[in-house]
TrEMBL record:
<feature type="repeat" description="ANK">
    <location>
        <begin position="944"/>
        <end position="976"/>
    </location>
</feature>
<feature type="repeat" description="ANK">
    <location>
        <begin position="779"/>
        <end position="811"/>
    </location>
</feature>
<dbReference type="InterPro" id="IPR027417">
    <property type="entry name" value="P-loop_NTPase"/>
</dbReference>
<dbReference type="InterPro" id="IPR002110">
    <property type="entry name" value="Ankyrin_rpt"/>
</dbReference>
<dbReference type="Pfam" id="PF13637">
    <property type="entry name" value="Ank_4"/>
</dbReference>
<keyword id="KW-0040">ANK repeat</keyword>
<feature type="repeat" description="ANK">
    <location>
        <begin position="911"/>
        <end position="943"/>
    </location>
</feature>
<dbReference type="Pfam" id="PF25520">
    <property type="entry name" value="AAA_lid_TANC1"/>
</dbReference>
<dbReference type="InterPro" id="IPR058018">
    <property type="entry name" value="AAA_lid_TANC1/2"/>
</dbReference>
<feature type="compositionally biased region" description="Polar residues">
    <location>
        <begin position="1119"/>
        <end position="1128"/>
    </location>
</feature>
<feature type="repeat" description="ANK">
    <location>
        <begin position="543"/>
        <end position="575"/>
    </location>
</feature>
<dbReference type="InterPro" id="IPR036770">
    <property type="entry name" value="Ankyrin_rpt-contain_sf"/>
</dbReference>
<feature type="compositionally biased region" description="Polar residues">
    <location>
        <begin position="1161"/>
        <end position="1174"/>
    </location>
</feature>
<dbReference type="Pfam" id="PF13857">
    <property type="entry name" value="Ank_5"/>
</dbReference>
<feature type="repeat" description="ANK">
    <location>
        <begin position="746"/>
        <end position="778"/>
    </location>
</feature>
<feature type="repeat" description="ANK">
    <location>
        <begin position="878"/>
        <end position="910"/>
    </location>
</feature>
<dbReference type="Pfam" id="PF24883">
    <property type="entry name" value="NPHP3_N"/>
</dbReference>
Length: 1413
């Protein structure tokens, strides 16, 4: 029993209308229960004997009172059925109306295709009983279940043998005899259609023992209590289920004709944007239209939306790429696989997928490894873990540490020949073989159910071995088969027979096991006895089949005659529209057909698929039945819903006699189906030469085209392999005048497709018939290119013999030689070289044939090309030589060949990566050894000046880094900023890498160009274990950087309590001050880290006397209501985006009423702080700058995001653009005018009591520059990434008395307008009462190697001071200067003042630099 869902706890969106409908259905059930309670209470409790049926009078009230028995949720794959059922049971949104529905749940069950246990009928029944007992709603029910007879029925094995009896006695009857509860309840079964297999023409067939949960519920749901609502979900494609549950209230989840479903899709996108900052970061006005396209492309599939949006969050998909993603789930899977699996990665992980697809139960990683190991016994667990990591995007964790595919529709796609390409097509049979071998290795220790699984995998492994040999296999392995049938009987008859042949004991005492072997003969003892005892002659089962229909289907002529004599209706249809005549024709029972036809049954009746009895018999090859029907007057040209007549069905099946019979009775030879295919095309496709000849003799049109433009000759050449009999079809068609150069809609001729398939006999026949040997399709491919791309040497030789042009080039600029080199058939390559093709031809990407062969790992082709004179040093458009490509793909043999032929071992591509760098990063140790043995430079640096060991440390590749160190790699090799591998490892938090480097004597006190040590980097990021390690190895705890900061001061600012405590315990000076007088306790106080303040005081730090409470502490003491009421706020929005290049800034003011906004942020809110970014910096290989803030992000985002429910009259794209406002801005700020005015009036008496400029936020957007100043900018530079468009936020701090008189005088002398602008700002500040926007300006940053340089203290280069000057400065000369330059135009706007500064900034204007930690 699946008593949980794998989606439990996952965030749920929308779908409120569904819950409202379910609530209405529950209320309707409650009304029905009130009406029927009086009727049922007057009847005595019924406890029928074993196998007895519940009388129909028990359900009379239910049938007449309600319009629906239950609710059926239907939708396509990924429409959110399971997620909705999960939310119904475990709601995640407490404020919604459906929150209380879970209280009405009686029991539930989740069917999963990847777990056969969840599809077991016996387990389903036992799970229902357990949940009803544990619910506590019916104490008397628990007493009934404790009855020994009931317990015996519930036992494992007994419940499986007679599930109907168990379901009636343990669930139905006890619940019917219970007093109705106060409110109606529901029973939920998710994915009820899982495990039901329906092929062409197949439907649910009644059986004495239901094999699936669906069969059990379909035949007994009418017997459920009137107060119990059955809620099921199923795919809408499974029409058999929907037909059987036709009285259920059907709710479709992905019908986009309904406005509320379209709204669901839109709201899903909008709510994810509103709640996920990582998604909003990718959003701009330009990409908003892409999300509008996404909601259209999804077709209501939430899985489609989730995959795309998750891909955007994971940086796997760019929003602009949405226009290129296919609009179907199958197309999306193909697109994602092409993105996830580069080069030949999929082939490496395909065995794992084959095992997962073959298993019937989820497997753990260890079990998966053991199965895959049976195919490759050299595979280690470490290598297997790497393969599993490659599949991390496609696998998710199941119950019990198992691994399963993220969705069953993806598993179906991997096995779907129609939609999955050959490259990604998986083979379940191979998985069965590996699992069978895995069971073979432990055969002696298998339990009974495991023996069943072993036999099942052997049966499905497609080994082409006789069953008795499979039985011998099990015997020789010592499999304990003797008692394997004691507890349960496998449903698969092949498995049962295999176990019996292998020695399973089927004794007389176990009558059930014997009955299974003969179940087809022992369904009923006697129909006559039933009729004599009052049974209706037209009685129907749950599928609508009458007794006559069942007898006709099984071919029991005696019973058919008996029922007809008793007056059975021969025209009654079952649920699929079948009559006894059509069922008998499908099975080929000629005598039954003659009987029914003789009794005047409707001979031309059609079922729901449009099949007549004649169509069914012709498709099944029942020639005698066809003759009987034709003799009885059946219409020969009737067609089904696909437009296919009996003639086409017989031609497809190769039934020559039936084809001739139909033609003699007037069948239309050129009648085409809905796809335009005639009987001739069908017979040609299947290679039935005799039928093709008969059809042509009767006037079939030889060049008739189907909807794809293909003729009979086209399909004969395309789809049929050249084996016995099929080439003769092509020859016959050519002899009868078929056009050999006919082009289909892809402009492909029969010769071209035969060349692709490698059918050399057909190629010869077509060329002899005059086919154009150099014809090209829409992609520029000739038959020679096609044959070379598939490696068909015989076809290549044949085409060359017939004069095919060898100098053709396809749309990518590749010659036949290039394509053949990639394919790897050396014989074809040598043939083309002998024909004089250029071995050094470059395609559009700059690749030569040697590049192609090296990339694909074709060693023999590489040798052939080099012998012919191919250049080993030829570079492609990316500057890469063949050696780099071969190394990149891990082709050891090719690398060896290229090195032996004097390929430049240290050649770098334009990205600066050499072959050694590529091999090291890919983990190809053998290739690394080979390259080093040939003299590769182990300390080679890339274009960014980083050695390979440095990158290995950055990527935390321990094994390869250790190998480099063993081979003499320079530990102290650094990048252009002076950072060594130890610096990088400390910053990234790679403890094992740090230990490794120290083991090899790395200098723990080495400093970069800014004199920062690894200890300071680790302290900055909060890596306490690394800090401890470095201190133990002798790192100087009070090492200072160029600004005088120590590790303690940095950790105190960032709020890393563990690091601060470690440093203090190891002697760090708590009173150390940097060159600007800042101590650890001062920066900790400013950032509001109260715990750190106590720690510092404990270790003797001097306390701050008279220090104002920090803005963060002040904010935390206020409630949101107080903040809102006392601080009317205004969001400040800059319209400049990352694409702005000129630096012009426009101000736009937007506000939303009653939204709380904070007027300040702490320094930890800016990108300077990493306290709340540790996790991302540890998980990412190269940290990036972020706009996230701790206390202002949520409120600011809310203020600028229109509530979803309030969108009226605007398009979906406009809603997305509303959400994208703060994503495209540089920084948001909201200021209270009253609080600002009050603060401005304060006196600046001392540094500790200065005016707090941290209430004003200045945001600057950096452009691409070598100067990177933020802490995250440090690692961006380490990883060599561009910083263009990076957003940085600075904390405004005091301007104060550090401004010298000389500097002010310089301003006045050089440009008086600057002082006029500053004075105007001061004047406007005095007049400001309501709102005060802060302008944002893009500027360059001063690199401080990770320590932020605050532009509020100085101006240099393009940096501009855009804060405010206090009204009163301590230095009176400053005030005099400002007063003497008062601006007369007091109406000048603030943005005009700031623009004046921006446009006329003086690059020589520079104050003393002071930077916060």
């Amino acid at each position: 029993m699946a008593q949980t869902s794998l989606l439990q706890g996952k965030r749920f969106y929308c779908r409120e209308w569904v819950f409202n409908k379910i609530q209405l259905c529950l209320q309707e059930k409650a009304n029905i229960s009130e009406l029927t309670s009086g009727v049922n209470s007057t009847q005595p409790p019924l406890v029928p004997d074993r196998g007895a049926f519940i009388p129909s009078r028990l359900t009379a009230g239910c049938t007449k009172s309600g319009n629906a028995w239950g609710v059926l949720l239907v939708g396509g794959a990924g429409s959110g059925k399971t997620a909705l059922c999960t939310e119904l049971l475990w709601p995640t949104r407490g404020q919604k109306a459906h929150y209380s529905l879970h209280q009405q749940s009686l029991a539930f069950h989740f069917c999963r295709a990847d777990d056969s246990d969840t599809l077991c009928v016996g387990g389903f029944i036992r799970g229902l009983v357990a949940q009803i007992c544990s619910s506590g709603r019916f104490p008397e029910y628990e007493e009934k279940i404790q009855d020994p007879a009931v317990q015996r029925i519930l036992q494992f094995g007994e419940c499986e043998r007679n599930p109907i009896e168990a379901f009636k006695r343990c669930v139905l009857l006890p619940l019917l005899n219970m007093k109705p509860p106060q409110q109606s309840l529901f029973l939920l079964v998710d994915s009820i259609d899982e495990g039901c297999q329906f092929g062409e023409g197949e439907h649910l067939i009644s059986s004495s023992t239901p094999k699936t949960i669906a069969e059990l519920l379909v035949s007994h749901h009418e017997l459920l209590p009137p107060w119990l609502l059955l809620i099921c979900s199923a795919r809408k494609q499974n029409k058999a289920i929907t037909k059987l549950l036709r009285r259920f209230h059907k709710i479709t989840l992905d019908d986009l004709r309904k406005a509320y479903i379209v709204k669901d899709v839109q709201q899903y996108i909008l709510q994810r944007l509103d709640q996920e900052e990582a998604l909003r970061q990718h959003l701009t006005k330009e990409t908003a239209e892409m999300l509008n396209q996404l909601h259209i492309k999804s077709s209501g599939c939430f899985l489609y939306l989730e995959c795309v949006l998750d891909g955007v969050v994971d940086n796997l998909i760019m929003l602009r790429e949405i226009r290129d993603i296919p609009g179907t789930l199958n197309g999306l899977y193909l697109w994602l696989c092409q993105r996830l699996f580069i080069r030949k990665q999929f082939a490496k992980v395909q065995p794992i997928l084959n095992v997962i697809l073959a298993t019937f139960k989820p497997l753990t990683v260890k079990q998966l490894y053991h199965a895959v190991w049976t195919k490759n016994m050299t595979l280690t667990m470490e290598e297997f873990q790497k393969k599993v990591e490659i599949l991390s995007k496609l696998l998710k964790d199941g119950i019990g540490n198992t691994k399963i595919l993220f969705h069953n529709s993806f598993a179906e796609w991997l096995l779907d020949v129609k939609h999955c390409t050959q490259k990604y097509l998986c083979n379940a049979a191979e998985g069965h073989r590996m699992l069978a071998m895995s069971y073979s290795c432990q055969a002696k220790h298998l339990k009974s159910l495991q023996v069943h699984d072993f036999a099942l995998h052997l049966v499905h492994s497609n080994l082409q071995i006789e069953p008795f040999n499979l039985a011998l296999w099990m015997i020789w392995n010592g499999t304990p088969t003797k008692d394997s049938l004691n507890t349960s009987i496998p449903r698969d008859q092949q498995v049962l027979q295999l176990l019996v042949k292998a020695g399973a004991d089927v004794n007389n005492e176990d009558t059930h096991a014997s009955s299974i072997l003969h179940q087809a003969l022992e369904k009923e003892d006697s129909i006559r006895t039933l009729l004599d005892n009052g049974a209706s002659v037209n009685q129907c089962d749950c599928n609508g089949k009458t007794l006559l229909a069942n007898a006709a289907y099984s071919g029991n002529l005696d019973v058919v005659n008996l029922l007809i004599s008793r007056g059975a209706n021969m025209e009654l249809e079952d649920n699929d529209g079948h009559t006894p005549l059509t069922l008998a024709a499908r099975q080929g029972h000629t005598k039954v057909i003659n009987c029914l036809v003789g009794c005047q049954a409707n001979i031309n009746h059609t079922d729901q698929d449009g099949w007549t009895a004649l169509r069914s018999a012709a498709w099944g090859g029942h020639s005698e039945v066809v003759s009987a029907l034709l003799y009885g007057g059946a219409k020969v040209n009737c067609t089904d819903t696909d437009g296919r007549a009996a003639l086409r069905a017989a031609a497809w099946g190769g039934h020559e006699g039936i084809v001739l019979n139909l033609l003699h009775h007037g069948a239309e030879v050129n009648r085409a189906d809905n796809d335009g295919r005639t009987a001739l095309i069908a017979a040609s496709y299947m290679g039935h030469r005799e039928i093709v000849e008969h059809l042509l003799d009767h006037g079939a049109e030889v060049d008739h085209e189907d909807v794809d433009g293909r003729t009979a000759l086209s399909v004969a050449a395309l789809c049929i392999p050249a084996r016995k009999g099929h080439a003769s079809v092509v020859s016959l068609l050519i002899d009868r005048g078929a056009k050999v150069d006919h082009c289909d809609k892809d402009c492909m001729t029969p010769l071209l497709v035969a060349s692709y398939e490698g059918h050399v006999d057909i190629v010869n026949l077509l060329l002899e018939g005059g086919a154009n040997v150099d014809h090209t399709d829409n992609n520029g491919h000739t038959p020679l290119l096609a044959a070379a791309s598939m490696g068909h040497a015989l076809v290549v030789n044949t085409l060359l013999f017939w004069g095919a042009a060898v100098d053709s080039i396809n749309s990518e600029g590749r010659t036949v030689l290039s394509i053949a080199s990639a394919q790897g058939n050396v014989e074809v390559v040598k043939t083309l070289l002998d024909r004089g093709l250029d071995e050094n031809h470059r395609d559009d990407a700059g690749w030569t044939p040697l590049h192609m062969a090296s990339f694909e790992g074709n060693q023999q082709v590489c040798n052939a090309l080099i012998e012919q004179g191919a250049h080993c040093l030829a570079v492609d458009n990316d500057g890469r030589i063949p050696l780099i490509l071969a190394t990149q793909e891990g082709h050891y043999d090719c690398v060896k060949v290229l090195l032996e032929n004097k390929s430049c071992i240290d050649q770098r591509g334009y990205d600066g990566r050499s072959a050694l760098r590529v091999a090291a990063l890919e983990g190809y140790k053998e290739i690394v050894e080979l390259l080093l043995s040939h003299g590769a430079d182990i300390d080679h640096k890339d274009a960014d000046g980083r050695p390979t060991l440095y990158i290995l440390a950055l990527e935390n590749q321990l094994a390869m880094a250790e190998y480099f160190l063993e081979n003499g790699a320079n530990l102290e090799a650094c990048d252009t900023e002076g950072r060594t591998p130890l610096h990088v490892s400390c910053w990234q938090g790679h403890l094992e890498m740090v230990n490794l480097l120290i083991t090899y004597h790395a200098d723990v006190n080495s400093c970069d160009n800014e004199r920062r040590s690894g200890l300071q980097s680790a302290a900055w990021q909060g890596h306490a274990k690394i800090v401890q390690c470095l201190i133990e190895q002798g790192a100087q705890v009070d090492q200072t950087c160029n600004q005088g900061a120590t590790a303690l001061g940095i950790a105190a600012q960032e709020g890393h309590i563990d690091v601060v405590q470690l440093l203090l315990e190891n002697g760090a000076d708590p009173n150390h001050a940097d060159q600007f007088g800042r101590t650890a306790i001062k920066v900790a106080s400013k950032t509001g880290h109260s715990v750190i303040l106590k720690l510092l005081e404990k270790y003797g730090a001097t306390t701050l006397n008279g220090c104002n409470i920090s803005p963060v502490q002040r904010m935390e003491t206020k409630t949101p209501m107080t903040t809102t009421s006392q601080m009317p706020s205004l969001p400040i929005i800059s319209s400049s985006s990352s694409s702005t290049g000129e630096g012009d800034v426009q101000l736009s003011v937007r506000g939303v009423a009653n939204e709380p906004m904070h007027a300040f942020s702490s320094p930890s809110e800016s990108p300077d702080s990493t306290m709340y970014d540790q996790k991302s910096s540890k998980s990412n290989k190269s940290p990036v700058s972020s706009n996230n803030s701790l206390k202002t992000t949520s409120s600011t985002a809310t203020a600028q995001t229109v509530p979803i429910d309030s969108f009226h009259g605007i398009t979906h794209t406009e809603r997305i653009q509303q959400l994208s406002l703060h994503c495209s801005q540089i920084r948001q700020s909201s200021l209270s005018a009253s609080s600002i005015t009050k603060s401005i009036g304060q006196k600046l008496s001392s540094p500790s009591c200065d005016f707090n400029w941290s209430q004003l936020k200045l945001s600057l957007k950096s452009t691409k520059s070598k100067n990177i100043v933020s802490a995250k900018g440090l690692m961006n530079d380490i990883n060599g990434r561009s910083t263009q468009g990076q957003v940085l936020g600075y904390e405004m701090t005091q301007f104060g008395k550090r401004m010298s008189n000389k500097s002010i005088e310089n301003i006045s002398m050089k440009d008086p307008q600057k002082l006029m602008a500053i004075d105007s700002i001061q004047h406007k500040r005095e007049q400001c009462h309501n709102h005060f926007p802060i302008q944002q300006q893009k500027c360059l940053e001063k690199k401080r190697n990770g320590i932020m340089t605050n532009p509020n203290y100085y101006l240099q280069g393009n940096q501009v001071f855009s804060g405010r000057v206090p009204q009163t400065l301590q230095n009176e000369s400053h005030q005099d200067v400002l007063q003497n330059n008062f601006v007369e135009n007091t109406d000048l706007y603030l943005n005009q003042d700031l623009r004046l500064q921006i446009e006329e900034s003086d690059p020589e204007f520079n104050y003393k630099k002071e930077t916060p930690l």
